[in-house]
Amino acid sequence: MTALFVALLLIFTSGSGKVARASGAKGSRFVCTAVPAGTDLNCPVDTNNRVQSTSPQEEELRNTIIQLRETILLQKETIVSQQGTIKELNSKLARCEADARSRGNARRKNTMGDLPRDPAETVEQLGKTMQSLKDRLGNLEQQLRTNASGGPFPNELKDLLKRRLSDLEGQLLTRVAELEEEKSQLYNETAAHRQRTENTLKSLLERITELEKSNSAFKSPEDFKVSLPLRTNYLYGRIKKNLPEMYAFTVCMWLKSSASPGIGTPFSYGVPGQANEIVLIEWGNNPIELLVNDKVAQLPLSVSDGRWHHICITWTTRDGSWEAYQDGERLGTGENLAPWHPIKPGGVIILGQEQDIVGGRFDATQAFVGELSNFNMWDRVLRPIDISAMANCSTYMPGNVVPWVDANVEVFGGATKEALEICEDRLFDS
Q1: Confidence of residue 420 (pLDDT cuts 50, 70, 90)
Q2: Is residue 58 part of a domain?
Q3: Domain coverage including residue 333
Q4: Given the DSSP bridges, would you call strands 289-292 and 409-412 parallel, antiparallel or unpaired?
Q5: By the number of CB atoms within 10 A of the CB, which of 133, 240, 241, 315 ranks highest?
Q6: Structurally, how many domains does the chain consist of?
Q7: 141 and 282: one domain?
Q8: Does any domain span residue 252?
Q9: In 274-311, which positions are buried (b, 16+ CB within 10 angstroms) versus exposed (e)?
Q10: How does pLDDT run across 142-172, given as a tens digit for each residue?
Q11: Which residues on neighbouring strands pair with residue 68, listed in sequence order?
């Protein structure tokens, strides 16, 4: 009880700077009055336990004490609240550190797997996050620096926040540096991959160019031959051009063969529903035959001596008239070969094989063995003077329906295309 009374008296003293003194005493003495238990200390009492009347000075002191109590409570609540905020920031910082460590481990395990889609965007986002944390910590420091009573900000808490902020800034800068490095690596790898792709494409292009040159290594597009050295059912050439409907035609070519018996089938044209629309064949011991719509005419030609020979066949639907030329000389004519039958369009021209179905089902016994060049076709009957000029190498006339050019002929099964200047080679054979 005495201690409480002394404390109260000290508070009064600190509040007003005045105390009651005993009257008539020589020196200053404090007057102490005992207060019974349960008595309200805010109200002074006399020796008979009666409440004394309060002066304005005492009322002011009492109000000051109340304000100090409220201030102390407010400070306590503020400090508790700020401590909770600090704990929350510490928790978030710990999670950030754990996340950074886990990403670092995952990146070491598989660098390419964790590369960000856009490192620049990630760097920018981290910068914004760091600035936001700086602002929040700055606000927190400002709030704690000036509390309700204007008291000072605790130095320990200030130092802790500064250290945390410095650590966080360092971690974010480290992460930014890592992302910049990953961005550089990703760019380098992308550039290297692009360079490898370009080199591969360049090599392919060069190879294609070489192949095109090797396939077109002829002085002119028509200076080549198709070689069919074996009697098989898989060596053949194919003309890429399609025939229109025709009421007459002329077919000319150069042939070289010594096969026996019979040279086989230099060419055949088949259409849906009729595999023997046009066929030139020498099979077994039979003479060379011309088939039109599966109708047959025997031709007085002989080309199996192993030398180059120029062959031309003409036909017209009018009366089914035909003519056969060898080396510029007309050796035979005839009529009634599929008269009034138009040649059907939409078929396939095969060099070296007779077709049992359109474009296929070849018979090895009917295959052409030898070399063939300058296969041309017209949709009209050529004049004898034109045929003679081509056979004598005094002129060259490409067919208006099927011209003999490299791009129009493809070979299969081991057949080859080789360079050939037919007239020079024929003169050499002669």
Answers
A1: confident
A2: no
A3: 224-429
A4: unpaired
A5: 315
A6: 3
A7: no
A8: yes
A9: bbbbbbbbbbeeeebbbbbbeeebebebebbeeebbbb
A10: 665 555 444 544 566 667 767 777 777 788 7
A11: none
